[in-house]
């Protein structure tokens, strides 16, 4: 019979932990939070020091009943929710609901779900940390005060069903500001000159640098021609050769934000998917009896600390020395933790470096394997020696005109044998060999190539770059990034176009109003300051009521002003230029939750609606009469179909290009990847490479 009851959030976690603890322990799952603020009302009494009104979450009654029954039978109840603010709050709510003495040592935390970590954590139970609870409660109440006050105002003044959140509003504002930057961007012309030089049989590339030792920018073709006129002959003198050895350090192990960014770059995973798969790896995978049964493969995945335990560092060093050699061990430099990082946590790492990804290939799902391999390799590389590069910069002179050539060669791969960090601009450092060049000698000038360029606007945010920017600005915390991105898309304030965020008209209307009347809600600095205040609450340096009160005093004044002054915005229907095929009345464009759509003006008598289809200028390869249009699946994935559907049922995930395959006469489609664009046959192996 069980003597102790342990409560965790999920059944998968419960199953893993119960096996480690043995027969004296019964482990049950609360399925997350059991109490929360009510959905039907504010649930915060602003006149009674912002006292929250907590109720049992709908559907959790039976779970609580079962937990109370088990708690009464147990000698002691342990609350083992996740080791963060949210987990501490879940433990506190459970203590209240189950009449567990909050001042008893009932709280157990662990950073990884392995046998040793679990057993060790139960040797050191502690009391509930009220500072952590207060920090989570303050965030919840702040978000409720903002959302439940501004949303009804938007319903009244703009459209029913709208809402505004605290962190989400800042994220949407950032996306809108970036879109405005792109729209208002004025390209500027500039030129470069690329020369091909020859030493004996080896050629290499050098680029124009300047005149008489001074760097010079080339703004137009006239300036380029003037430079080329000054070149006197077909030889350049090697004026100077700089050789040096450069070290490149590995990236630090993952925290939540960098994991989401790298998984987006290398695996094409959305933030939500990354966190879902990481949760599975953390809670435990059944490796089979011989390998230890259900085992947690990674440490806790919601963290902003890059700290690594001494045990993990020692194990990694021994593994690296055995696998690669002693010279590959040794990167022990500790980077500066970002301010406010929860250093009680570790970085995201494999629970054992001895558990190589290849050994789990047949056990893990494809998604689990890819993410585990990414986490494993990033951690292993972070514990390895720096790479060493031999670099060379060559100064080439001709009549005062200077070109420069740069080359690099990997002298010692170090961590690069295992892993190289991805980049958002897709430019990876590569080896670039130069022939052996000596100061004072001459090389032949083989060819010259002037290139015209135009400055480019800043790119739209991807999920990866938006998460990176939010983190850099101090907005949100590890647990908030994925839900924030998910929320702004579900609300229809932004959409994804080629995996990049684009604001919708609805999003722009809402943020313009929020920005006008509640500028602090969309202000990056204010939101970052509020995150800092939540950290101070967690550290026990300030009371949560003071933070809420300071915010609400000004916010309430703005709210009253907005109630009086905000004008009602009527989103007028625009004529679509076609008639309804069902009743003959004109069709109009309406604004919906997910953007514009077409509807019959005879609503509600006629409820005919149509999506607004984007034509791509290609005739349907199936029926030869309809046009191909861009459509979206239920999961918001773009696909292509005929505009005469359902008469013609042609569909394709890939974009048809309007040409036939020269080999088999089937239609050709465009296939895009990060590195290139290919034209491929939809039927045979024919393909063409085109510049991306």
Short recap of the structure:
The protein is α+β, with helices and mostly antiparallel strands. The N and C termini lie far apart (66 Å).
Strand content: 15-25%
Q: What kind of assembly state do the chains in view correspond to? A: single chain
What is the mean pLDDT? Answer: 90
Radius of gyration from the alpha-carbon trace, in angstroms: 31 Å
Overall description:
With 692 residues, the protein is of the alpha+beta class. 33% of the residues lie in helices and 24% in strands. It has 16 helices and 30 strands. Strands 8-9-15-14-11-16 form a six-stranded antiparallel β-barrel. A four-stranded antiparallel sheet has the order 19-20-21-22, with no helix packed on it. It has a four-stranded antiparallel sheet with strand order 23-24-25-26, with no helix packed on it. A hairpin with an 8-residue loop joins strand 21 (595-600) and strand 22. Helix 5 runs parallel beside helix 16, helix 8 crosses helix 11 and helix 9 crosses helix 11 (366-382). The longest helix is centred in the first third of the chain and has 28 residues, at 130-157. The protein starts with a strand and ends with a strand.
Question: What keywords describe this structure?
Answer:
single chain, about 700 residues, 16 helices, alpha+beta, 6-stranded antiparallel β-barrel, about 35% helix, 4-stranded antiparallel β-sheet, 30 strands
Lay out the secondary structure.
Blueprint lengths: L3 E5 L2 H11 L3 E5 L5 E2 L7 E2 L5 E2 L2 E2 L4 H13 L2 E4 L5 H14 L16 H7 L8 H28 L8 H19 L4 E11 L2 E10 L2 E2 L5 H9 L5 E14 L7 H12 L3 H13 L1 E2 L7 E2 L14 H14 L42 H17 L4 E12 L2 E12 L29 E13 L8 H10 L8 H10 L3 E4 L2 E4 L1 H13 L6 H15 L5 H22 L8 E6 L6 E7 L2 E6 L8 E2 L3 E6 L7 E6 L5 E5 L8 E2 L2 E6 L6 E6 L4 E5 L5 E4 L2
């Amino acid at each position: 019979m069980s003597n102790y009851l342990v409560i965790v959030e999920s059944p998968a976690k419960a199953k893993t932990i119960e096996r480690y603890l043995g027969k004296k322990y019964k482990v049950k799952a609360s399925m997350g939070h059991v109490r929360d603020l009510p959905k039907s009302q504010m649930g915060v009494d602003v006149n009674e020091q912002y006292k929250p009104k907590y109720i049992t979450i709908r559907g959790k009654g039976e779970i609580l009943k079962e937990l109370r029954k088990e708690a009464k039978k147990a000698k002691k109840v342990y609350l083992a929710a996740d080791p963060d603010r949210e987990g501490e709050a879940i433990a506190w709510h459970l203590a209240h609901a189950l009449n567990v003495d909050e001042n008893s040592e009932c709280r157990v935390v662990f950073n990884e779900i392995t046998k040793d970590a679990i057993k060790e954590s139960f040797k050191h139970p502690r009391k509930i940390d009220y500072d952590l609870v207060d920090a989570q409660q303050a965030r919840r109440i702040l978000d409720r005060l903002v959302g439940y006050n501004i949303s009804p105002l938007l319903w009244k003044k703009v459209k029913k069903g709208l809402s505004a959140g605290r962190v989400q509003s800042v994220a949407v504002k950032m996306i809108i500001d970036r879109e405005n930057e792109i729209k208002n961007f004025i390209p500027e012309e500039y030129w470069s000159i690329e020369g091909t030089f020859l030493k004996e049989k080896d050629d290499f590339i050098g680029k124009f640098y300047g005149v008489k030792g001074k760097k010079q920018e080339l703004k137009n073709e006239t300036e380029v021609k003037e430079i080329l006129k000054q070149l006197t002959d077909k030889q350049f003198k090697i004026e100077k050769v700089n050789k040096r050895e450069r070290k490149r350090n590995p990236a630090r192990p993952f925290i939540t934000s960098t994991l989401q960014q790298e998984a987006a770059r290398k695996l094409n995973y959305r933030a939500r998917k990354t966190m879902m798969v990481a949760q599975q790896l953390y809670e435990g995978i059944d490796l089979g009896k011989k390998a230890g049964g259900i085992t947690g493969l990674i440490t806790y995945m919601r963290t902003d600390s890059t700290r690594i335990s001494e045990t993990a560092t020692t194990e990694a060093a021994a593994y690296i020395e055995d696998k690669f050699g002693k010279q590959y061990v040794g990167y022990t430099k500790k980077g500066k933790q970002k301010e406010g990082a929860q250093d009680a946590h570790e970085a995201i790492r494999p629970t054992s470096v001895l558990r190589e990804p290849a050994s789990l290939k047949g056990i893990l799902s494809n998604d689990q394997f890819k993410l585990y391999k990414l986490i494993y390799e990033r951690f292993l590389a972070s514990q390895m020696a720096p790479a060493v590069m031999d670099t060379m910069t060559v100064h080439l002179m001709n009549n005062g005109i200077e070109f420069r050539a740069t080359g690099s060669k990997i002298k010692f791969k170090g961590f690069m044998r295992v892993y190289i960090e991805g980049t958002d601009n897709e430019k990876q450092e590569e080896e670039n060999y130069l022939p052996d060049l000596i100061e004072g000698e001459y090389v032949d000038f083989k060819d010259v190539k002037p290139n015209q360029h135009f400055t480019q606007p800043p790119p739209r945010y991807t999920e990866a770059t938006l998460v990176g920017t939010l983190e850099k600005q101090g907005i949100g915390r590890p647990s908030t990034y994925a839900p924030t991105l998910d929320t702004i898309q579900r609300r229809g304030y932004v959409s994804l176009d080629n995996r990049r965020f684009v604001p919708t008209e609805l999003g722009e209307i809402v943020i313009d109003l929020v920005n006008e009347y509640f500028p602090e809600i969309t202000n990056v600095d204010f939101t970052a300051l509020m995150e800092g205040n939540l950290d101070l609450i967690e550290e026990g340096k300030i009371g949560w009521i003071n933070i809420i009160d300071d915010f609400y005093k000004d916010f309430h004044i703005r709210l009253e002003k907005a109630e009086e002054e905000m004008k009602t915005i009527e989103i007028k229907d625009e004529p679509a230029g076609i008639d309804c095929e069902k009743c003959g009345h004109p069709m109009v464009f309406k604004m919906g939750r997910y953007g514009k759509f077409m509807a019959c003006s005879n609503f509600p008598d006629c409820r005919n609606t149509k999506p607004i289809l984007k034509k791509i200028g290609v005739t349907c390869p199936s029926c030869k009469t309809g046009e191909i249009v861009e459509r979206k699946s239920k999961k918001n994935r773009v696909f292509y179909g005929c505009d005469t559907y359902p008469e013609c049922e042609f569909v394709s995930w890939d974009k048809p290009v309007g040409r036939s395959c020269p080999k088999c006469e089937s239609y050709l489609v465009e296939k895009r990847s990060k590195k290139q664009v290919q034209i491929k046959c939809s039927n045979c192996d024919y393909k063409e490479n085109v510049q991306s």
